[in-house]
Structure formats: C-alpha cells, structure tokens
Design a protein that fits this description.
- It is built from two helices and no strands.
- The chain has 67 residues and is mostly helical.
- It has a domain of 46 residues.
- The chain starts with 27 loop residues before the first helix and ends in a 12-residue tail after the last helix.
- Pfam families: DUF1289.
- InterPro entries: DUF1289 (IPR010710).
- This is DUF1289 domain-containing protein.
C-alpha cells in the first residue's frame, strides 16, 4: 500500500478539541508530534491506522485524497 508523507487529509478535528482526528484517525499527540517522530515511530502509527481502517472495512482516507 502506497503511503503519502503524512496520513493527514486536511480535515483535522483535533484542532477543535477531539482526542482522535475524525479525518485520519491519529491521536492529538500523534498529530502534534508527527514532524518530530522517527521513521520507526511513524511506522507504528501507520500500522495502527491501517489496521483501524481495515477493521472498519473502509479504505484509509489518505488513499482517497488528491495527492
């Protein structure tokens, strides 16, 4: 599965006070720290997000955005 640099789809609800982003599924902490995370840390987040969307039987939202 191809991945963009970030799972962000520019519909971030963490800026509105949500703990989990309604757009990509990352936590507030993950969104806030994404640019400072190591590749290994990001990989763990990617794996969790991919499993999350698969469990919902929905494609990851970053695959549907215009890149």
């Amino acid at each position: 599965m191809s991945r963009p640099d970030s799972p962000c789809i520019a519909r971030c609800s963490t800026a509105l006070g949500d703990e989990i982003c309604a757009g990509c599924g990352r936590t507030f902490v993950e969104v806030a720290n994404w640019v400072a995370m190591t590749d290994a840390q990001k990989e763990l987040v990617w794996q969790r997000l991919e499993a999350h969307w698969q469990a919902l039987d929905r494609p990851p939202p970053w695959l549907a955005r215009d890149i």
